[in-house]
Task: structure prediction
Amino acid sequence: HNGRSDKPVETSHLLKLYPDGDGTPLTANRPVVSERYDEFIFHEPSDELRRRLVTKTQQPHNGWRNSPHAKWYSTFDPEGQLEQLQAVYQLITAELHTASKRRVQCEEELKSLR
Result:
């Protein structure tokens, strides 16, 4: 198959070693996880490449849950992350509101001192 007509676009980013706010102290017993996420995007792939990409492959039925390191893995929970992001947004919004009120108070106090 001649793949020259398919122009690849590659994006990648580093993943965090540990979740923020985990609170678990770092020890020699806890493995250090270093991962890299690669994503390949095919913009308007050829028919042959599209067919090969969408063809289902046989996946191992055991998966990562049976790994001896499974206790260090976590399951992605989009709802939980959304709740965390909303809570952080509300906290930041409240802090900005408080800081804005304090700024106005300081400006008024400064005017009265002049």
In short: The beta strands are 8-14, 36-42.
